[in-house]
Amino acid sequence: MRNLILCLFFSTVLFAACQKTAENANVQPSTNSTAGYYTEPHRPQFHFSPEKMWMNDPNGMVYFEGEYHLFYQHYPDANVWGPMHWGHAVSTDLVHWKHLPIALYPDSLGLIFSGSAVVDWNNTSGFGLNGQPPLVAIFTQHLMEGEKAGRTDFQYQSIAYSTDKGRTWTKYAGNPVVPNTQKIKDFRDPKVVWDEDSKQWVMVFAAHDHVMLWGSPDLKKWKHLSDFGKEFGGHGGVWECPDLFPMTVEGTGEKRWVLLQSLNPGAANGGSGTQYFVGNFDGKKFTLDPGFASSVAGGKAVWLDHGRDNYAGVTWSDVPSSDGRRLFMGWMSNWDYATLVPTEAWRSATTLPRQLVLKNTSAGMRLATLPVKELEVLRGKAYTIDNQVVENNLDLTAKLGFAASMVEMELEIELPEGSIPDFGIAVSNQQGEEYRVGFDAASNQFYSDRTKAGKADFSDKFAVKRHTAPRVSSSKTVHLHLFFDVASCELFADNGEVVMTDIYFPTTDFSKVQLYASNGKVKVKTLKAWELKRAF
Ligand code: FRU
What we know:
single chain; 536 residues; mainly beta; Tachylectin-2, Chain A; Jelly Rolls; ten-stranded antiparallel sheet; 4 helices; 31 strands; 46% strand; binds beta-D-fructofuranose
């Protein structure tokens, strides 16, 4: 369906748009912090969002010389999807972002779809300058004319390089570096990693219902290594935006390879979502951990996030080994309604930056997801409760003394013996609109409920039902870590074992915050709440 819409859309606007964006090539980066900046209704205050117009997937995330780069799928001429460019921003702390001019524009080979970037430390590509390693971006080009003509080879992989810390980019004259000789319609979203064991660059990209792995000595010449995935994981839609990387299993020296794999539609709670696989890569093939295979057999999937608004996320390349974290960010939306959400000046934001941790659990190898510790710089006033029994509602609004729309909370709640409570946090406004996030002990599920949280008539797929996620832990203490930012909530439950990310659009910002417990009392062992400051 989306392809049909895109096709019609493109047939009318592509050429005009490309011409217009070329004229805008000299747009200067924003100065930030001016009065009225980022104050529109529903504008996230500590999540990254583009200054203007459309954004989807994060792209080209790479750390180099003290800067985290974030590129993103961007259409600079409208607040809906259109001819894709790579927008660009940098941050020194993952929290405060500086907008930079557009990095990559469409050209005669096509639009600039999703992809990745690496530091070519040994200058294998030869693009380096004066002994300095180049940044190399690897991305899909999508040729609209090819698609319209009914061809199936209109997506292929290209590269570009930068020798000035990502500020300007030169496309490689030999593009595409991976042509689509197999003529596969969905052939996109390359993510590249250097594999020290096999001493080669490894590219993973999505080919409709599986991923392809390719290898290269120099980022220019690529050879097909293997395929993975047709018979494993969720296949309710098209595979997109994979990421393949090594990780150490927490608390051990053991190494595994993790494959993140976005899927649209077919996610846990509908529409777009990201599943993952844990296994090994031997320089040629990715094979599942024997223990993991049963979790993804017969169409089953293991989800990174059970909310509806974390899609196409991938991890940062080249985070220094002295840091050692695997850092992740996703697009905080869903193709079910992304182009319809009620914002004007811009559309979409990223998730918070997160750290992925690989754990050997009773269910097998699993990823835990945690908000990065850098986010603590946003904390303002704090409020704490210790050891309090709660039944029905505890109104925290006056106690907190700060706006309910931008809050971080950590709660440790003890489940009482012999009862099955339903508890959580509700944020609401004067209009009676309310969003709830919590845990229902009877069904052993976390949930996120935006069905009464405000505007929803823009799409009949937005607020259909509450979103649920099975609890994994059997501990008597439930841990909730929550971030509310005007139009979104992120839940990291049980130390990141279960994650839910959802957006919402209250008519006026949420001003009231309550802790609720029904169907029995709960004991709040600790509740910590912080006011969060804006990041712009
Ligand atoms: C995922 C995706 C990618 C593609 C990009 C186009 O959201 O569909 O597969 O490269 O968006 O903008």
